[in-house]
Amino acid sequence: MLGELGLDAQVAVKIETRRAVDNIEELAQCGDYIVVARGDLGLHHGLDGLPLAQRRIISTSLKYGKPVAVATQLLDSMQNSPTPTRAEVHDVFATASAGVDSLWLTNETASGKYPLEAARWLSKILERVEYNVAQLPPPQNTRDRFAKGLVELANDLGADILVYSMTGTLARRIAKFRPLRAVYVGTPSVKVARVLSLVWALQPMHIPAEGYEDGLEKLIATRQTGPFVATYGIRGGVHLVKVKF
Length: 245
Known about the structure:
The chain is an alpha/beta fold. It has two domains: 12-126, Phosphoenolpyruvate-binding domains (TIM Barrel, Alpha-Beta Barrel); 142-244, Pyruvate kinase, C-terminal domain (Pyruvate Kinase, Chain: A, domain 1, 3-Layer(aba) Sandwich). The protein is 42% helix and 16% strand. The chain is built from eleven helices and nine strands. Strand 6, helix 10 and strand 7 (202-206) form a beta-alpha-beta unit. Helix 2 (24-30) crosses helix 4.
């Protein structure tokens, strides 16, 4: 429908009800971004059923390579307290370690007494997280295998990944396999850069260029130190990968 209207906006699928969880396979395939709405999920599944529902949504999103966010009641006590509880800190750490792309504060920053402190605490906790997902999704096709190979090469070298992408497709494929280091993505589109900023490990940069090769060289020029693995969006045929040790 968006295409028929001449629009290219992406669709975020907010999972709130039991029916949505039951149909998460179909929703994860048709949506662009999956959001775990824990407040509403807790009402429909009960507190004891919420962890399993959240785990199922996250694992299914990872399976299809779709970015996934967890929202609401992350640091709920900070609506009235300048510091979180130990249980909240552990919850945020465990949720991030499950492989989610982003965590969203709601009441803490919308109406709480300590919005800045809540944001700072969330960042502080996430800096401690070891981005190591226990189970990664299997590659679905040759392009997935290429992206997975880049991630494995970069992880083995302890290297960052540099990718120049017009649409962000390769960058999202790379993020699907949860690299352990940052992925710097050059793109000529400000809109693409904004969308990619919500995806795991991606650090988008607006870099206008005449083509893929020119864009990749400009992106590499921003990195004065290595190591890194660099490439550009897949176009078919012989493909170029550069490695700096």
